[in-house]
Amino acid sequence: MEFLSLKEAIAEYVEDGDVVAMEGFTHLIPFAAGHEVIRQGKRNLTLVRMTPDLIYDQLIGAGCARKLVFSWGGNPGVGSLHRFRDAVENGWPAPLEIEEHSHAAMAAAYAAGASGLPCAVFRGYAGTDLVDHNPNIRTVECPFTGETLSAVPALKPDVTVIHAQKADRRGNVLIEGIVGVQKEAVLAARKAVVTVEEVVDDLAPSSPNSVVLPAWTIDAVVEAPGGAWPSYAYGYYDRDNSFYLEWDEISRDRERFSAWMADHVFSHG
Amino acid sequence: MEFLSLKEAIAEYVEDGDVVAMEGFTHLIPFAAGHEVIRQGKRNLTLVRMTPDLIYDQLIGAGCARKLVFSWGGNPGVGSLHRFRDAVENGWPAPLEIEEHSHAAMAAAYAAGASGLPCAVFRGYAGTDLVDHNPNIRTVECPFTGETLSAVPALKPDVTVIHAQKADRRGNVLIEGIVGVQKEAVLAARKAVVTVEEVVDDLAPSSPNSVVLPAWTIDAVVEAPGGAWPSYAYGYYDRDNSFYLEWDEISRDRERFSAWMADHVFSHG
Amino acid sequence: MAEPYTASEMMVVTAARALRNDDVCFVGIGAPSEACNLARLTHAPDITLIYESGTIGAKPEVLPLSIGDGDLCRTALTTVSVPETFQYWLQGGRISVGFLGAAQLDRFGNINTTVIGDYARPKVRLPGGGGAPEIATFCGEIYVIVPHDRRRMVDRVDFITSLGHGRDGQERHRLGLQTKGPTLVITDLCVMRPNPTTNELEVVSIHPGVTVDRVREATGWEVTFRPDLDTTPPPTTAELEVLRDLKARTEAAHRGGG
Amino acid sequence: MAEPYTASEMMVVTAARALRNDDVCFVGIGAPSEACNLARLTHAPDITLIYESGTIGAKPEVLPLSIGDGDLCRTALTTVSVPETFQYWLQGGRISVGFLGAAQLDRFGNINTTVIGDYARPKVRLPGGGGAPEIATFCGEIYVIVPHDRRRMVDRVDFITSLGHGRDGQERHRLGLQTKGPTLVITDLCVMRPNPTTNELEVVSIHPGVTVDRVREATGWEVTFRPDLDTTPPPTTAELEVLRDLKARTEAAHRGGG
Q1: Is C61 a catalytic residue?
Q2: Which of residues 134-173 of A touch C (CB under 8 A)?
Q3: Residues D232/D9, Cβ–Cβ less than 8 Å
Q4: Do B151 and A145 count as a contact with CB atoms less than 8 A apart?
């Protein structure tokens, strides 16, 4: 574990062509890190995320992605992700290969990755058409009951990037509130980068069972206050729901999107 | 969920012949409930527990058990469970059928039970002799890599009994500290009985991610202060390590064991 | 004399009434969340609401915009990880009612939220399944809330994202599913339930002021009306008041954020 | 002049020295726990100790009697569930060293803690595997601590509870295991390591005052001594002091409990 600047961490740990998971289920989405990936012009990424959300809409629109592995590609509570749709429907700015799953499957696949298993076994996809379009949805037979169960490959990103509330000076990280699949995504990955709201002397987890990632499971910790905006950091700031509504307008149009990215992403960092 | 006395709860929810899991990994072992099961003379139970510990040594010695499903049958840090050994080696007070697993297998089997799956798939038992003696250790093939994985049947007790720190007046239960497999054991079971140190107005979990079992996952809550002794309740009292040492002496001898049970279990409650 | 109300209010109030005090609901965002919280704030104060972000027993002050707003966690009994949510709580069979929306809903209650047109070359790429494919098969029963028009209420969905009763109405039985699937569909025009034999959705009640012809025209298949066709009871003043308060609080909170 | 010390102290100190500051150890109760905590209190202050009760980064004040004493949780960085411990942390390949004891250990490092005699009709029923079968295959390497006598150090274990190098020394390779298995065995007489080719345990160093003959007599197979056989360095005064303090604190705490 090393403490790095955001620029250093992304330069060192995210490589062109990597399978990258930037997780955070509505909460603690690592937007600041995503913007740095865009600024550094990373290319041909396979982006993995249950809910691509605005962060991947931006990465896709900026041309960083070759492929998307996901389970729900909308603007939560608002509607479409227009950059994602433009890529899928019109190939702009580049064609986007997709591997689509359900939430249950992706959550299980991250857990399998964290568990060192080659696949996740669960009950899923019954009667759905997705099984005809995703060759990574297969079955296994229970050796006791003979039932047919679903299987998907474990998710094992090259690098997982998450945002969290706090790290202590040894690099141990605390996540509180809606914890999503972040622990699983970090433990499933070969490398992990964590941005945090603040670095503190004492992590002071509120419970012995608080979600803590030990420093030795992480490669780089970056102090990035506000790094989850417009998503939120429980205990620090609220979700900027109004920005999620605005994004619907910003992202509908290629030019307006590009202008916004120039002003808010490329000119910073 | 109903609040009951210990006597009522065991009478209503534990039946002769049931598959019973009394969990608590070293911490929060439901001894008071176990003693009530003994006092009520329940018979032919299939007892499930990763670490039988003194609680099952007592139940086995008292003749309640027909079968034991377990993964480590010792007196932790002390040595043997003499009543367990006497049953297995000499059939006293009755023969005891055993189904033996590893911790990894049992933990996964409880999680599978909680997840509504028929079996747990994991990597385990490589190169061990137990696979030749337990027909419930089987394999499945990963449909992606072709690797052979282990499988054990999901644990689905008729009733799970656990001890916890607190319940609120609605019957929601808080578990803190070493949480073991209690959540999984409760969610895997058809019925669940929880004894608690105290019933409080406000559960006041210390973290949003504290381990809480909602009232609607539980059938009966029983106030039983000290109900984990000689194990412990984090935040209430420590483990009585000296009693675990003493038990080694008490339990070595059938008569001394029976006398202790008469004085400390049968004469109470 | 009842107060005036909108078609959307009629829909949400009707959905809320279907919920019981002891239900454990897996709640989707939008109309399902409005209905579930309205039920909680009126006749079902003890209802348990679970959002797929892992918030169990959430009692939000305002309607969340997303499935994971901070208010859900702050007011929940406990918040668990997303893998646990899907494995122990949904797949584990702990949820009595799942509430889903739909971009397309067909005569057998199958739901499409994936694509309009062909999967590989979609006319419209929709968000996809999210939690819904497994919500549809693991909750005790499914309530669907959907605005009623021919674009949405179709004879046959382009893509089965979440199983209703299948292409021929009998798929759940064939798959050995123990759960009931869609038992109730609430639109802004009427209430529908599956036929006990064929599982085709039939109109059981029409909202006040809506005609049979209007329902027929808005439905993409030759829809059946039950012989004992009823008029849905209109919202009460009390229900409208609670719902409007909730929405006003919500509007203020979300526009004010930043 | 070194201080006098017991054979058990020699064993624990030697085991402790094998641990590095950046190790992540899965710790068993008894001698393994003594060695790991001695390492933590001497040359490896940042070592991470994980007990199978789910306590990650425990720094106990006194040695725990059980794998789940309250002190482990109280001093841990975090405490996770037992399923998570085995799935994410052990099976996930996060542990560098697993420390195991043994009722029987054979020439190929296989461990028996299940039965003496036949499984169905055991002469002695031992506690069983617990976490050990998977610790043995998922930790980067395994250190075994075991008192050295013919009852324990056997040619062939009655039962393979936890795989060492298998019945013929080559089983790990056949099973495709990526981990090293037992690389180090510390007894109260000597230190052993597997032969690089055959994986048979060989004596690499003998503790001060112990003779080759005594080791030979206490070992249940015709044991090989490495040509460059060494004498194990005795405990230092500082090591003994820390260990004895730790054990004195422990004794007081456990006898005083109640």
Answers
A1: no
A2: none
A3: no
A4: no
The tokens describing B102, both together, are: 């590893």
Residue A113 to residue A96: CA distance in whole angstroms: 24
What's the distance, CA B144 to chain centroid? 36
| Cβ atoms of residues D101 and D128 within 8 Å | no
Amino acid making up residue D4: P
Nearest to B216 among C24, C78, C91 (CB): C24
- Chain B positions touching A117 (Cβ under 8 A) are 121-123, 149
C-beta separation of D32 from D15 below 8 A: yes
How many Å apart are CA A227 and CA A233, to the nearest integer? Answer: 9
Establish if A69 touches chain C: CB-CB under 8 angstroms. no
Overall size of chain C counted in residues: 258
Cβ atoms of residues B61 and B251 within 8 Å: yes
Listed by number, the residues of chain A in 174-203 with a beta carbon closer than 8 Å to a beta carbon of chain D are: 183-184, 187, 203
Residue contact D77–A211, C-beta within 8 A = no
Write down the residue that tokens 């999680």 correspond to.
B111
- Amino acid identity of B46? T
Give chain A's length: 269
Q: Which domains does chain C have, with CATH numbers?
A: 7-248 (3.40.1080.10)
Q: Which of C28, C17, C39, C53 is nearest to C191 (CA)?
A: C17
Cα(C244)–Cα(C165) distance, integer angstroms = 35
pLDDT of residue C258: 38
Whether ipTM tops 0.90, in short, is yes
Q: Are B96 and B67 in contact (CB under 8 A)?
A: yes
Q: Do the Cβ atoms of B102 and D82 come within 8 Å?
A: no
B118 touches chain C (CB under 8 A): no
Choice among C34, C52, C200, C202 that is catalytic? C52
CA distances from A241 to A53, A96, B211 (A): 13, 28, 29
Task: State pTM to two decimals.
Answer: 0.98
Tokens 């931006």 label which residue? Answer: A58
φ, ψ of residue A33 to 5 degrees: the values are -65, -40
CA distances D202 to B107, D215, D218, Å, are 36, 11, 14
Query: How far is Cα A99 from Cα D253, in angstroms, rounded to an integer?
Result: 57
Closest C-alpha to B163, from B264, B23, B13: B23
pLDDT in tens, D147-203: 999 999 999 999 999 999 999 999 999 999 999 999 999 999 999 999 999 999 999
Chain D residues closer than 8 Å to B72 by CB: 127-131
Residue whose entry in the numeric block shows the structure tokens 């094998």: D18
Determine which of B68, B71, B96, B103 to mutate to test the interface with D (most D C-beta atoms within 10 Å): B103
CA distances from A3 to A30, A163, B264 (A): 17, 14, 58
Q: What is the DSSP string of D219-230?
A: -SS--EEEEEEE
Query: Which CA distances in Å does C72 have to A49, A238, B164, C41, C53?
Result: 22, 12, 26, 15, 9
Structural domain boundaries in chain B: 2-101+156-266, 116-153
How large is the C-alpha radius of gyration of chain C?
18
Sequence-distant (6+) residues with CB within 8 A of B73 are: B51, B52, B81, B84, D125, D127, D128
Partners of residue B168 on adjacent β-strands: B200
Using an 8 Å CB-CB cutoff, list chain B residues near C78: 205, 208-212, 214
pLDDT tens per residue across span A33-69: 999 999 999 999 999 999 999 999 999 999 999 999 9
Q: Does domain B2-101+156-266 have CATH number 3.40.1080.10?
A: yes
Nearest to A206 among B136, B206, B211 (CB): B206
pLDDT at B77: 87
Distances (CA, A) of D90 to A153, A227, D50, D59, D99: 20, 32, 10, 19, 13
Q: Which of C185, C29, C180, C198 is nearest to C104 (CA)?
A: C185
